[in-house]
Amino acid sequence: MRKRQVVVRREEPSRCSTTSAQTITTVRYAECQKNHAASVGGYAVDGCREFMASGEEGTNGALICAACGCHRNFHKREVETEVGYEHAAISSNGT
């Protein structure tokens, strides 16, 4: 097995800038895409429309769907990103 390196890059506002950006990312898991008939050469999904965790956040049950029993990875991942900007006020005396 090869090791993979993941690099996370964070952009910070420049020091002379009066604008700062805040990014809010929301992840939602939609319909189940697990093919239950793959072993017999067919295609059939169970019809589960949305992931519902069967346990509390931080437990193993949080990764299992209460409706269909599949792992969260089988559900379609939808990501929404919102960017908000804040403008800093600059006083007239430069401080």
Automatic annotation (TrEMBL):
<keyword id="KW-0863">Zinc-finger</keyword>
<dbReference type="GO" id="GO:0005634">
    <property type="term" value="C:nucleus"/>
</dbReference>
<dbReference type="GO" id="GO:0008270">
    <property type="term" value="F:zinc ion binding"/>
</dbReference>
<dbReference type="GO" id="GO:0000976">
    <property type="term" value="F:transcription cis-regulatory region binding"/>
</dbReference>
<dbReference type="Pfam" id="PF04770">
    <property type="entry name" value="ZF-HD_dimer"/>
</dbReference>
<dbReference type="GO" id="GO:0050793">
    <property type="term" value="P:regulation of developmental process"/>
</dbReference>
<keyword id="KW-0963">Cytoplasm</keyword>
<protein>
    <recommendedName>
        <fullName>ZF-HD dimerization-type domain-containing protein</fullName>
    </recommendedName>
</protein>
<keyword id="KW-0862">Zinc</keyword>
<dbReference type="GO" id="GO:0005737">
    <property type="term" value="C:cytoplasm"/>
</dbReference>
<dbReference type="GO" id="GO:0003700">
    <property type="term" value="F:DNA-binding transcription factor activity"/>
</dbReference>
<dbReference type="InterPro" id="IPR006456">
    <property type="entry name" value="ZF_HD_homeobox_Cys/His_dimer"/>
</dbReference>
<feature type="domain" description="ZF-HD dimerization-type">
    <location>
        <begin position="29"/>
        <end position="78"/>
    </location>
</feature>
<keyword id="KW-0479">Metal-binding</keyword>
